[in-house]
Design goal:
Beta-galactosidase, Chain A, domain 5; mainly beta; single chain; nine-stranded antiparallel sheet
Length: about 350
């Protein structure tokens, strides 16, 4: 394993944008960036051994700042939506910036995804660290966060998310990478097949906030228990698909147990033979089919991105859990350790 680092540019404030490239024994590699602790590229082989980048990303690393798609980054403090930007802890109400319709999304305009993290190399891993002050974007408690990336010779990329706080807060961390197993810039992923280890999903209102119900996927376009093309049912007249212009929903993972890493999703591309198995100890996975990628910054290959050119499988806690007592809690108190794992295991079918 080798890890290279270089400066890819400077922000308007003069801060260095640092890129880390982790390369394994076969030459497959992962590129990371200190803006949002982002995954910028993942180069893995197809069935003929040809390496291609399968993670969507930008030609200019500075474009990772304040982008709409949250491309490849770690959003926080709270990934996904909090209804009306409000929640309570121990009877005290906290108010957040409203940045997605009537709701708070991904920790707000200056959330973790739009911060420069402190990066360092530790042996064969890259560690990004961030201090979030009490009151930042309305969230209580000083919070220290680490995003730790490990890349091995089996083409497994593991992200370990760690945090501690000096006061009660809410926390929901994930990674928002978009994948296209035909290669970044190859076009739509609607022909990729997807399987989810999920027999229920979270219905939402029109603003994509969960209603609090867990609904069966049986007989609906939300049923991915058996692998099917992502695009097969995406145009169905079904509320979830209408509200999001495609899939942008959360599926609780069957058999979830705190601390147990298990398969959440399997993605495959028949044309290249590439596969991606996503494993996690998080309670759910948000699947977003890149429904609003049109008009985002230029791709790594210099082409324009279009809607449905990538799919994000974001392992996380339930959206709006701070306002839904029946959902698994995302409350973190002083003295507690937050630790979550997400594994992106890349493979090939002959």
């Amino acid at each position: 394993m080798t890890i290279e680092q270089k400066i890819a540019g400077f922000t308007a404030e003069g801060d260095a944008v640092v890129v880390y490239t982790m390369r394994n024994a076969s030459g497959a590699e992962v590129e990371l960036c200190n803006i949002g602790a982002a995954i910028c590229a993942v180069r893995v082989p197809d069935r003929s051994g040809k390496l291609d980048n399968v993670a969507l990303g930008y030609a200019n690393h500075l474009d990772y700042l304040n982008d709409g798609p949250c491309m490849g980054k770690v959003p926080g403090r709270y990934a996904n939506r909090i209804a009306k930007g409000r929640f309570e802890i121990d009877g005290k109400e906290y108010r957040l910036a409203i940045n997605n319709g009537p709701n708070a999304l991904h920790g707000g305009p200056t959330g973790f995804a739009n911060q420069l993290w402190e990066g360092r190399v530790e042996s064969n891993r890259v560690v990004f660290a961030l201090d979030s002050a009490d009151g930042h974007e309305g969230y209580p408690g000083d919070l220290y966060v680490e995003a730790v990336y490990d890349w091995d010779d089996d083409n497994r990329l593991e992200l370990t998310l760690l945090a501690q706080t000096n006061g009660a807060t809410v926390l929901n961390l994930t990674n928002h990478a978009y994948f296209n197993l035909a290669g970044e810039g190859a076009g739509s992923v609607l022909d990729h097949t997807l399987r989810l280890n999920a027999s229920t999903y979270l219905p939402t209102d029109q603003s994509l906030v969960p209603t609090g119900e867990l609904a069966s996927v049986e007989g609906t376009p939300m049923d991915f228990r058996t692998a099917k093309p992502i695009g097969r049912d995406i145009k169905e007249e079904f509320p979830a698909l209408i509200y999001g212009k495609g899939y942008d929903n959360c599926w609780p993972i069957d058999g979830w147990q705190e601390g147990k890493v298990q398969v959440a999703a399997e993605l495959k591309c028949e044309a290249t033979g590439r596969t991606l198995t996503v494993l996690t100890d998080q309670p759910a996975a948000q699947v977003y089919t890149g429904n609003w990628l049109e008009g985002c910054p230029k791709s790594r290959s210099g082409a324009d991105y279009h809607d449905y050119d990538g799919v994000a499988i974001e392992c996380q806690g339930y959206p709006d859990a701070p306002n839904k007592p029946t959902f698994p809690s995302q409350l973190l108190r002083k003295g507690e350790r937050y630790e979550r794992h997400i594994v992106f295991a890349f493979g090939v079918e002959k």
